[in-house]
Design goal:
Blueprint lengths: L1 H17 L3 H22 L6 H8 L8 H19 L7 H11 L17 E4 L5 E5 L4 H21 L4 H15 L6 H15 L10 H7 L1 H12 L10 H27 L3 H11 L5 E2 H7 L5 H13 L3 E5 L5 E4 L6
Antiparallel strand pairs: 1-2, 3-5, 4-5
Helix pairs in contact: 1-11, 2-4, 2-9, 3-4, 4-5, 4-8, 6-7, 7-8, 7-11, 10-11, 12-14
Length: about 325
């Protein structure tokens, strides 16, 4: 209950923060979008370069391969949630529609529940794969999803249980059903964001929840494993998963307050924002890419940051001139 109260306290402060500088909030929102798309896909080993990611997210290029197609699909669903969460009731048709958009560029086969059974497996250090959990069978999936959605909506309307608790358990049950042949993890994270928005928790617009999960993915899988034992028999202990879920939300709010507090009250927030963006980039990057990811921050300011970080040995220029590209020196932390 203490963790629920802490998250509720953060929720109560939201309105105060949202009255702060729109320039800062816009910058945070744009960075969060990039990080969310990048992290949620990277958890599933879907990786593209920072430049291609930025170009795809901004709609400057079309996806050129399977990984980029997965990125584009996630971008579209995330955009829909950010813009239309109040008009997306938790029903099977909406979930199927989200899945169809998620895979529309990659396979075009989304929007329907699995046709064959699937297992949740784990690869051991030896390379051997073991079955970690057997989800609901394909035959039972449609009914299981119907019951999941119906039960969630009913309990939310009753108002007996804290809505955050209902959201956490919904996500756990969704992952245990594993209703799709592909994209279950990403769908779970998108549904988490949608349900949190509908419950009035807006932090995911400004701090990437997916990045928080990626940063603690070992704990994520461990909590999921513990809370899925006995799930089919309805004897599972939801506490490990709920604790992880709430801890992640608390961490997201902590990051939000830290960035808003420091950025809003002290000088140099633009430089720190550029440094934060660079810290999360993969591969080489250019000034133009940083400008795309740092709205409201001018090119000269970004150049000053690049020059300062270069002198500190944190980054290095690998090409020079008008189209100069830079690279992080990974051994260093900043």
């Amino acid at each position: 209950m203490n963790m629920l109260q802490r998250v509720a306290e953060f929720k109560g402060k939201q309105a105060l923060y949202f009255q702060q500088s729109s320039e800062i909030l816009t910058a945070m929102r744009n960075v969060a979008v990039i990080q969310s798309i990048e992290s949620s896909n990277r958890i599933e080993k879907i990786v593209v370069t920072s430049k291609r990611l930025t170009d795809i997210v901004n709609g400057h290029v079309e996806p050129a391969d399977r990984s980029e197609s997965e990125i584009a699909g996630y971008r579209d669903v995330l955009k829909t949630i950010h813009g239309s969460s109040d008009h997306m009731p938790i029903i099977s048709n909406i979930i199927l529609q989200m899945h169809r958009y998620l895979l529309q560029y990659a396979t075009g086969s989304g929007g329907k529940y699995k046709m064959s059974d699937n297992d949740i497996t784990e690869e051991l250090p030896t390379g051997e794969k073991i079955i970690r959990f057997k989800p609901v069978s394909a035959f039972e999936t449609n009914e299981a999803m119907h019951n999941l959605v119906l039960g969630f909506r009913k309990r939310r309307e009753e108002g007996i249980y804290p809505e955050l608790l209902l959201v956490a358990i919904f996500v756990l049950d969704f992952l245990s059903i594993h209703p799709f042949s592909d994209g279950n993890g990403r769908m779970a994270r998108l549904l988490t964001l949608l349900l949190l928005y509908q419950a009035g928790y807006e932090v995911g617009r400004y701090v990437s929840l997916e990045k928080c999960i990626e940063d603690t993915k070992d704990q994520y899988y461990a909590a999921l494993q513990k809370s899925s034992v006995g799930w089919h028999e309805e004897t599972n202990d939801v506490r490990p998963w709920v604790e992880y879920f709430l801890t992640t939300l608390i961490e997201a709010h902590r990051r939000f307050e830290q960035r808003m507090g420091g950025l809003d009250r002290t000088k140099g927030w633009k430089s720190r924002q550029v440094e934060t963006v660079i810290q999360h980039l993969m591969g080489d990057f250019s000034l133009a890419e940083l400008i795309d990811r740092c709205p409201g921050i001018t090119g000269p300011t970004i150049r000053q940051v690049l020059d300062r970080m270069s002198k500190k040995g944190l980054i290095m220029a690998i090409t020079k001139g008008r189209n100069a590209r830079w690279r992080k020196i990974e051994q260093e932390e900043f």
